[in-house]
Amino acid sequence: MTETVGSPASAGESEAGARTEGIRVERVYTTEGVHPYDEVNWERRDVVMTNWRDGSVNFEQRDVEFPDFWSVNAVNIVTSKYFRGALGTPERENSLRQLIDRVVRTYVRSGVEHGYFASETDAEIFEHELTYMLLHQVFSFNSPVWFNVGTSSKQQVSACFILSVDDTMESILDWYKEEGLIFKGGSGAGLNLSRIRSSKELLSSGGTASGPVSFMRGADASAGTIKSGGATRRAAKMVVLDVDHPDVEEFIETKAREEHKIRALRDAGFDVDLGGSDMVSVQYQNANNSVRVSDEFMRAVESDGQFSLRARTDGSVTDTVRARDVFNRMARAAWECADPGIQYDDTINDWHTSPESGRITASNPCSEYLHLDNSSCNLASLNLMKFLREDLTFDADLFRRTVEIVITAMDISICFADFPTEAIGRTTRDFRQLGIGYANLGALLMATGHAYDSDGGRALAASITSLMTGAAYKRSAELAGAVGPYAGYARNAESHQRVMRKHAAANDLVRTYHRNDTDIHDLATQVWQEGLEIGARHGWRNAQASVLAPTGTIGLMMDCDTTGVEPDLALVKFKKLVGGGSMQIVNRTVPRALRALGYPDEQAEAIIEYIAEHGHVVDAPGLRPEHYEVFDCAMGERSIAPMGHVRMMAAVQPFLSGSISKTVNMPEHATVEDVQEIYFEGWRLGLKALAIYRDNCKVGQPLSAGNGDKERGEQQAGKEIEYRPVRKRLPKKRPSQTISFTVGGAEGYLHAGSYPDDGLGEIFIKLGKQGSTLAGVMDAFSMSISVGLQYGIPLEFYVSKFQNVRFEPAGMTDDPDVRMASSVLDYLFRRLALDHLPYEKRAQLGIFTAAERTEQVNGADVSQEQNELDSMRESVEHSAQPRPVVQHPGDDTEAGSSTELLELKLGKAADAPLCMTCGTKMRPSGSCYLCEGCGATSGCS
């Protein structure tokens, strides 16, 4: 707990009120005279990280030190991603103590230098409390803090950036440069292009302007180049355009038109998988696009009225359109390719604490950070499950005190932080934007017996979020009394106070249903009242305090079951064991939920066994149907309806300074009208931003077995285009090779014939005795594959379909490059990939030769700047805690992540990309995807 210590006013006081002599810090988790490190059992582990598909070693560091309750997954991710120093040198960090000390001591030292603490004792207590919370996975800073703080690198602490661009060529070129620098550092940025004059307006020279969409091409190409130059993930960026811009309809259609191009290229036999050689001709793929809509526009949509598009140069009306037509175009484009998203401009700026310093025009790539142009936000997230007591009640007071300590540390970081541009540094220091948030909400709701899509679940989530932001702003007001309000506060004092009252008023409207959320809500009400009183005297230290970020990698670091505001992915998970091997486990929140719902132990065990076998709760023995909804997940037999996600976002949005990183996933059969309904309800319910993703809507995706390569027969731009495949026959004389093989004791031969100018054109497989049923089936199968290859179906498509297919015979092979195979087809198509596909495509599929695997081990990149290291697969379960497990020895030959395990249970493919680092299927995390094994993300930092 912290409090401020008063002092007489001095001549140097801020206008907001008298400053104090720093804050006093009370112990929350720690004991006087006992260091947090002395309260845990430490153990030494070897971190050897492999690509699960072929067993190649991607990273190795032995004899690292961690507490015994940290899971294998968390240890691997921290060791590979966050430890600094070259591998194999004495400078390399090898203990969690070193990592935490490097970061925490930098924070404490800066806090002392800038007068945050009333005494040395308070600084010491603060150091111990921060250390304890990080050691026990109570919270985590965002990744840039772990990468940079306390090292010789620039002290970059922010992952979220917003840039600006004006209607001049100099500004546009600066945009390209600044965005490139941010991408180079592994972060992302967003900006609004609406200041750039439209293609319907004239230049001062008399010519016609290019328009913002034209300049997007250059920025997109730059992002793609920088991505391909060093990162394994796409560059993360957001591009926003106002709905009244004359080029808005062109902007809406940009990515949808490119999706039509991808389909045409695919049907013509070109390589359009993510990273494919022919994807370079497809534009606008490196950004998320969003249209910024106004209340005026949405009311025109509601009433089927007209809406004016206005010139950027003089504000004159260039055209008048039917608002509903524009809105329908947005929904159809999003239905086709998931872009554009929507941002609600008037709602965003109505909650803006600093409007006198400029409007909020854009967001970071995931839409959770919304504030002034040329600014940044550093993030930290709390693990909500750490505040759940044994009696399944939430410890609201402990949560409040934790928030106070964390938000203090976050504010201190701005005192020593470095920034990518001078403008961003200046704005961030003047407004001190912070983004405290949380992870594990989905797990908390299930564990306490709440359905994610329920009034009770939303009340609990709203109360917790209100308490978090209320405590953060109360601490911010106390810090303003100690070290002064943010520099822009005096100019924006009235607006800031108005927004604080709006938050408090929204808190008063929360309806609670259970003692749990009632207790939290009562404390939140008290905290908001106290914060308003302190802020009226001193102002606030921070223009922004809270957001809900994806919490991807740091969520795994904290051993969280769910990320951000998301529900649980599924009821069964994939877990790697400390001593090697893996097992399928039932989600550890399930038994707590059954206990919260009143089920006796024996009955709960029977339900858990059923879930382990089937992956869902439908018809589970003894489970009452009215309790099914408690176990609804993002995927599975009973998945949460899209509007259920929207309603949860609406429940917590009034208690966030920024917004929420979340994509509303929709089933493939969803309609354009369904998208329109979600976008409209988002506005009506008071959201700030919203994005949707319809399953299998995109063609150019990472290879993923079963993802929609089938034709869907939709009309494109009002006309139907017919594509006819052309067969390219092999010449009479062609190069070929024959390979003998053994799989699980079964012998056979593979004959592969190629075109003279390279490229596989036919295969013949001899397996079984001549005239046998097996031999006949393999002959027919070979003929089918050969004809498909000659009609232009890429080999990598077949490889993605048939690798990991499981049936007997299976097991050891006599091939040094493919030591194990789950079936004959699994072996044959891995062998064909090794012989006929380039390294880049094989890397996407996780297929390497033995020599390549050895070379990866010997030549691994150990640069301190490397942020994306290869890793092994495993789930995020906390290995030291007892939980029900059901082991299936054969599962780990078929599944490498919880998503893939769920696919096996459902019997259908999940529409998620493969991790480009370790090859396993990723899972949704906010508005991007997260790899459970190595912590890599598809775009969010």
Descriptive notes:
Residues 1-15 have a biased composition (Low complexity). Keywords: Cobalamin, Cobalt, Disulfide bond, DNA synthesis, Nucleotide-binding, Oxidoreductase. It comes from Actinopolyspora mortivallis. Its cofactor is adenosylcob(III)alamin. The protein has 941 residues and is an alpha/beta fold. The protein has 27 helices and 25 strands. The strands form eight sheets. Strands 5, 6, 7, 8, 9, 12, 13, 14, 17 and 18 form a ten-stranded mixed β-sheet that branches. A three-stranded antiparallel β-sheet has the order 19-20-21. Strand 7, helix 6 and strand 8 form a beta-alpha-beta unit. Helix 14 (455-483) packs parallel to helix 16. It is globular. It starts with a strand and ends in an 11-residue tail after the last strand.
Number of strands: 25
Task: Look at the structure and give the mean pLDDT.
Answer: 85
Tell me the Rg in angstroms.
Answer: 28 Å
Largest sheet descriptor: 10 strands, mixed
Shape annotation: globular
Can you give the helix content as a percent range?
25-40%
| Through-space gap between termini | 31 Å
- Low-confidence segments, ≥5 residues, pLDDT <50? 4-18, 228-233, 700-723, 860-893
- Class by helix and strand content? alpha/beta
Tell me the β content. Answer: 5-15%
Provide a count of the helices. 27
Function: Catalyzes the reduction of ribonucleotides to deoxyribonucleotides. May function to provide a pool of deoxyribonucleotide precursors for DNA repair during oxygen limitation and/or for immediate growth after restoration of oxygen.
Domain Ribonucleotide reductase large subunit C-terminal: 158-693
Family: Belongs to the ribonucleoside diphosphate reductase class-2 family.
Keywords: Cobalamin, Cobalt, Disulfide bond, DNA synthesis, Nucleotide-binding, Oxidoreductase
